[in-house]
Amino acid sequence: MNESPVRVRRTQRGDFELDLPQEERTLLRSLPHQLRELLSSDDPALERLFPPAYPDDSDLQSEYERLVRGDLTEQRLGSVDVMEQTIDASRVSEEQLLAWLSALNDLRLILGTKLGATEDIDPEDIPEDDPLAPSYALYYYLGWLEEQVVEALNTGLTPGGPEPAP
After folding, report:
1. What percentage of the chain carries pLDDT values higher than 70?
2. Cβ count within 10 A of residue 16
């Protein structure tokens, strides 16, 4: 079995190297704008990002949204901004990579909601001629890249764990 390429790795300096091929950067470059637009809309898929705190009490839910929705949206938009500003960087700080993680997660959750994706769906079962195949490919790519980011953030943090890259 071929080992998956490493796209994100912690360096000895404590920052993170992004080893993303140009075609992946091009794809990723198109996503922050789309996420920003979705975050400023009333798209039902946003419920995954802003689940109801009081599903059985519309008054409490309205008050909750009034108090926190703006701050939560602002935090998410901040992550989108960082990803957009560093999309062509070869190295990013931990804070920047955490912003990437947040934006990637938001993108994946929204796309998964729109696709109705479940754990039961195997990417190998999606025919290449399915009109949703490109969206599923993006969904699985975002999950894979998100995993790469998490692994890089965890590198060198546990005793006996993998060592940071030079």
Report:
1. 92
2. 24
